[in-house]
Amino acid sequence: MNGNVNCSTEDNLFKQFLSIKASAGSGKTYNLASRFIELLGLYLKNKNFSVAIIPPKDLSSIIAITFTNKASLEMKDRVMKFLKGLGGIRKNELEKSDITKEDARKLLIHILKNFEHINVTTIDSFMNTLHKAFAVDLGVYPDYDITFDSEKIFESAVEMLFEDEKNFEDLINFLNTLLILDKDGMDGEKIIIKNLKEYHKIELPENVISYDELEKRIKGDINSAVSELNEYLLKEINDLSDKLNNLIDKYDTMFNGNKIKSYKLLDVDKVKKNYAKYHEFIENNNFNEILKKGGTIPPEEQKLFREILKEILKNFRYYLLLKYTKESEAIFKQIEKLKEKENDVQKRLNIVDGSQITKRITEILKSDSGVPYAFCNLGEQIMHYLIDEFQDTSRDQFEAIRPLLENSKGSGGSIFIVGDKKQSIYGWRGGDYTLFDEVDNDFALESITLKGNYRSGKDIVNFNNICFAKALLNDIPELIKKYDISENLSEEIKKVYSDASQIPVQDFKGYINIHLKKRNDEDTDDFYKNRLIRILETLFKRGANYSDIMILVRNNNDIETVVDWIHSKDQFKNIPFITDGNLKIINNFNIKKILLASSFIIDPEDTFYIKSVEELGLLNCFNDLNIYPSGYSPYEFFLSVIDLLKIENDLYLKRFLEEVAQLTLKGKNIREIIEYFYENQDISISSSDEADAIRIMSIHKSKGLQSEIVILPIFDWELYKTDRMYDYIPLSDVLEDYAGEEKIFTTINSLKDISETAKNIYEKKIKSQLIEGLNLMYVAQTRAVRELYITGMFSKNLSGSYPRPLRSSAILYEMLDNLEKYEDGSGIDYAIEKNEMGIFFVCGELKDFGSKSFEKNEDIKVNKCYSPDSIIFRIRKSFIDEPDIEDLREGMKLGTDIHKLLSVIRKIDDEKNIEAEVERAFKRSQILYDKKMFEMVINTVRDLKDYFIDIDDCWTEKEFVTKSGNIFRVDRIVKKGSFFYIIDYKTGDPKEEDRKQVDIYRRLIPYETTGIIYYIKKGEKLYVSSKSN
């Protein structure tokens, strides 16, 4: 199905519960936005489209949940464009809607008035909203700070571990274990920290048995009180092996010489290698497999053979289990202690690790303590759910919102999920694509697949159809089976890629150029580099712009390599790039100068800073310096430094100052802000679509993006890894006749042959990794609009098989090698050449770029740099030419700016300082000076001076969650003595509900409070207290 799937059917029935499978380029954002428009239409008319559905009672009862901030912004933009189109303000892009022009304009105005109630948010933000509803149950204060700087929490916890004298012996055991496991390094502390970082993601369940307890259980099972159990087990294996050898020798002439060889002279290594084979032999009792033709052995001797072998396997299981549990226990103990320390850090600082929010919510939901009333009421408020990129939702995230979805389904709400299992590439972050089918079944969602591809040329679409809808479903599973990676893997691939075939919508062909070369270690880098340069040379000769080109790599480390390859050619040295690295503001030279100069000003005696500013030629800037840190707010201080260094405004500087402003509002000092930028090096500007530069990024970052030309210069990555994996298996898997619930924390790689649980865990993880590896291929190959270039290298041994683990280049080679089977009806004209050196493939047609016109949407010209207010500003800005909306827009901006100015004014020393404080507020909040606004703020502060001067404490823009699940932000709270005052600023005319709202605010604080409503334009105060109610 193509186009808009969301609108009501011909009989006017609204499709309440929908699941949309949206392959690459199929119009996912379009359908999400049109669904949102449809719900807005229901809200506007307040009319039942079917008996079962309750229309949205207000804007806040609709929520759209996206995966990233960028996706959230794109959806808001698309919704507003649709409404503008329906309202006759711009060209209408929506295929079908029953919203009239007049209704669309009403919606536009209503949305602008109530923009804060438009719930288009990220999954992380929504999880935080839920977390606030659980704050009391989780033992945190509702005004906690969220940090996504898990590294800082980790570092503080590790420091506490090292300082804990009681933990010293366990730390040494942990280090010894790491050395046994061949963990590299010479510095013990660094080895410990590096591996704690790796292991501390492991979950810690209950009922984990210790090594000592395990040893006791095994001794009980074998009825032995030996002191050295490991030595005893090894001796038992050797003694039993001797008995088995004697039995084999006794009937030597009866056995098949080649097949019996693996049963002779058994030791631990040989048993480990053949465990599955021995176990199968015992289970099937098939002696004919190891006997000569016509050979016989008495039944009692066959039974003895099996019993001896069974005892060998039993003792081997115990030996292996003890060995790996001993190693794992040292790891487990340190993980357990580390997590305790991390919890202590968060409680002490009243912060919450953003990456752990979802897990904390699901733990409460699974407990017997009951669901908080606030959470339940939140479910009553939000009734209509739109969830984007559902394949990237983690199981914990889904379990956190499941009760809300169930409530929606049972109470007349609606559910709309969109995603694509083929684009699930965030498994390492918890994304679980299997939820898609599970939710479809559990919630009885109607499933619709979008078949059209609106992005790529016909040949590109048809080529990918052959790769992923034909070869991957028919030939590749047979290849994978040979590698015995995981059971049922072929079936899993078919589940994910059953909807891969698409119908091309564009009428141009597009072009594909692929070269896969047989690997030669001596020229790997040269091959990749030279081919990339040749591709770029050809593109530039044909008139391609830098901005037409996107280069994708598997790993972030390859980005720098690719840049170096391109810059190695003299003609390419000045080519501009956009990468994740050069978007990070800490890598910008001017930002580095600002931070260095600021450090020098606050530590002018530090020899490092003196030498650094001297080498940069900045020392003269500080002659007759008139900047005193103690006399400035941090924001003013950094503005003065920027002025001193004469740094011109650009995106990096704007982003830097936005962050400084936020940190200043949080009360951070200058030194803390400098440290913040060095510790949070991922702070970036957003890339501009209009910048003429080559984009180089990881495949993960490219999801949701497209480019005229896509180059994959290193198409060769492992589809799965066989690294050591740690998890929990039930003790009953290993101890015979044991029915307890205790678990063992151990490495599952080595135990997958002796434990069914370990085998299932191992295969599930490998299966998930391989699917994700294939999905990375799919995402990479579907970003191109007009041209796709792929370069890879593969390895094959003399027998013609690929080395383990399988790599993306091997899969693509097999796809190309089987192309002829599927070319009929594909509509692509191609040329392919195969020889002992590799394979070369080309199809489609090339056109010069000089003659083509790229259409650009001029509807909204905006700076891509983001801030908390810029999302609202971008959307409001698009209405600037509309006379009937202009007054409303200006009024909203005035109200927003006044609230922001008042939020940065905290305490004032004296009434005569009011004017100076307001001037400072304009600087700190980055709001342009406006005389009218200036006077209104001064008058407000003067009228409320008793709540700015001689006060004990104050809080501005504080968020609270009520027992009913509502989240409120209070303008100002003031403490004077034992009394609290709540101040609510109003820029509009008085309304009846104003008093009720402030009364709700008063009840949020468990102390004697008085509410004050201040009407800024009128200069009037209204007091709200228990006496006035």
Automatic annotation (TrEMBL):
Transmembrane segments: none annotated. It is an enzyme of class 5 (isomerase). It holds the Pfam family UvrD_C. It catalyses: ATP + H2O = ADP + phosphate + H(+); Couples ATP hydrolysis with the unwinding of duplex DNA by translocating in the 3'-5' direction. Residues 1-457 form the UvrD-like helicase ATP-binding domain. ATP binds at residues 22-29. GO terms for molecular function: 3'-5' DNA helicase activity; ATP binding; DNA binding; exonuclease activity. Keywords: ATP-binding, DNA damage, DNA repair, DNA-binding, Exonuclease, Helicase, Hydrolase, Isomerase, Nuclease, Nucleotide-binding. GO terms for biological process: recombinational repair. The keyword Nucleotide-binding applies. GO terms for cellular component: cytosol. Its EC number is 5.6.2.4. It comes from the Bacteria. This is DNA 3'-5' helicase.
